[in-house]
Request: fold
Amino acid sequence: MTKVLKVNPDQPEFDAVLEAARMIQTGGLVAFPTETVYGLGAHGLSATAVRKIFEAKRRPSTDPLILHVASPLEVEMLTTVSAMRVLERQIDALSESFWPGALTLVLPRGSGVPLEVTGGGNTVAVRVPSHKVAQALIRAAGVPIAAPSANLFSRPSPTSAADVLEDLKDRVDIVLDGGPTEIGLESTVLDLTTSIPTLLRPGGVPLEELERVLGEVALPDEVVMDMTSIAPSPGMQIKHYAPRAKMVCLMGAVGMPLRAALKKEADAIVASGQRLGLLLCHSSMLSLEGINAERVNLGACSNQWFIASQLFTGLRALDRAGVDVILTHGFADTGLGRAINDRLYRASEGQVVHVEMVTGRPGKTVATPTVEDDLLRSLDEDLLG
Ligand code: TXA
Ligand code: MG
Reply:
């Protein structure tokens, strides 16, 4: 049986946190909110406790977990001290800028970290979350907490306690319900064990911000574009974050060609008798007004923080509404857009459609903005204001 304990996200109640912390100490599973998504936590230094995470999520044991600690000072005991010295400047600079927060660092594994946490490998992922409930839980438990996202393997990550229960009811001992999470997408995973720091998963801290602190950041060669190749980060297989409905994701700049393509797809889906779900930004949604569909509006296309916060929630809501197909589109690939597009790509199992960008190259028609484009853009900006 799963026990749900409501907690105030800003001032978590001591009793609830203590009960959850005892559960962690005694080898149980506790789902808890972080600023990114809900985590499924267990005692991070106990192999038996960590094994329960993989069972509950039905996740392959080769997919390593993140250890959550309360302060950067606790990172040293989880990695090898000599490696820590070599990496000290990078870790200090990154932790000063981004911790506590949505950045996970991959470091050489210290001998106290069970191989169950690291998927058998010699590196360990570490993060200092900022959410008050996560902080209180880690401090009360007094141990690092191993926690993947609290969803069944390959499903969208949970951004509320209800999402956790949808996937893991009676598979977790306690859920700390601290309301919806703020960012709504997982942390950025950065590998510091490579000669140039490597971005393994785009997330809540944008690449541009890492580059500002580190200079160069490498992107893994076309990160795992099929399910069979060996992943630099084993959790980066393509099928991930997937709703039950089939996804159709159009990638291209928001504008006339994209809207025309969305309309064509939407009409074809409805004509085929399938139930349609739309997960679109406001201006694209307006252009599909007459179509019979369930709708999740992602707001202004330029408001990446809002889009990120609604993405997984929206996928789950459309699933609950029972749609057969979810039609969506990608966004500008800068800032949080990189993580948003990555999740859309994986939720679509890589089956995205690239809508021709109309450029001024010879032989191509140049699309001049239409009155409709201008109108929709101003609507988008109004939403932002
Ligand atoms: O925001 C987040 O990161 C959330 C919250 C709960 O902290 N956690 C999360 O965990 O998203 P999970 O397990 O769903 O994703 C962790 C990712 C996976 O892609 C995993 O493969 C990668 O981090 N990872 C973990 N340890 C690693 C390691 N030693 N080397 C390379 N990749 C690693
Ligand atoms: Mg996950």
About this structure: The pocket of threonylcarbamoyladenylate (ligand 1) is lined by residues 34, 36-37, 39, 63-66, 104, 106, 118, 121, 123-125, 127, 147-149, 186-187, 189, 200-201, 233-236 (CB under 6 Å). The chain has eleven helices and 15 strands. The first strand starts at residue 3 and ends at 6.
